[in-house]
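Work Package 4 report. The design task specified in the project plan requires that, given a folded chain encoded as structure tokens, an amino acid be chosen for each position. We show below one input record used in the internal validation round.
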């Protein structure tokens, strides 16, 4: 098994550094996630992200603010709805309003937890003539390294697919893929820190595709 895992990560490193005609960028995504009880099975959800570009713009490229409401059906299944406001600061200012719905399923196998999230988005991007519809599918695995829940090895991959055309920049089909490997550490009974490298491939229309290699630093708080 260890040889198989090593071979997988060597392959990921190889495809991430191929000399294709790509627009390369290095980014740091700083993220904050909060969940808290509302009533019965309802939970409030807030997510805030800062996406800093080191190579292309040398400043914050975008900010993401995503509030929502989660409905917990049982310990393994939850539904969610919400809104996102995304001011895009570089290369020039624009913004996006987005509505989203999701279903999240997780299952525990001893020390391994698997999670799958399917999210449907309706994107109102400034300057595009109509609403863009997109599906996102994320698969995440995390392994309890010590058996006490303090340290976890984490890996996830998320695939994005556009369901329609909207203007010249959004086309039906594959949109992007994100891959992350890292460590999740409990720093407080209700607070966890997650960090590690990421790789993002973005399919762009009319110009070079974009490859972003960087890191994610995320703080999760749940009450």
């Amino acid at each position: 098994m260890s040889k198989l895992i090593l071979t997988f990560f060597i392959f990921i490193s190889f495809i991430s550094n191929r000399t294709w005609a790509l627009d390369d960028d290095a980014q740091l995504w700083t993220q904050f996630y909060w969940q808290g009880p509302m009533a019965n099975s309802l939970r409030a959800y807030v997510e805030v992200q800062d996406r800093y570009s080191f190579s292309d713009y040398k400043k914050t490229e975008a900010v993401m603010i995503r509030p929502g409401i989660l409905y917990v059906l049982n310990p393994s299944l939850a539904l969610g709805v919400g809104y996102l406001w995304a001011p895009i600061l570089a290369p020039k200012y624009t913004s996006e309003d987005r509505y989203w719905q999701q279903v999240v399923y997780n299952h525990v196998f001893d020390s391994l937890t698997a999670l799958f999230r399917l999210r449907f988005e309706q994107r109102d991007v400034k300057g595009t003539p109509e609403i863009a519809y997109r599906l996102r599918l994320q698969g995440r695995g995390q392994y309890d390294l010590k058996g006490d829940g303090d340290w976890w090895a984490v890996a996830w991959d998320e695939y994005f697919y556009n369901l329609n055309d909207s203007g010249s920049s959004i086309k039906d089909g594959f949109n992007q893929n994100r891959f992350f490997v890292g460590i999740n550490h409990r720093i407080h009974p209700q607070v966890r820190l997650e960090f590690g490298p990421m790789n993002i491939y973005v399919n762009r229309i009319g110009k070079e595709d974009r490859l972003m290699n960087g890191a994610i630093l995320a703080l999760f708080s749940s009450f």
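Helices lie at 2-16. Validation will be extended to a larger panel in the next phase.
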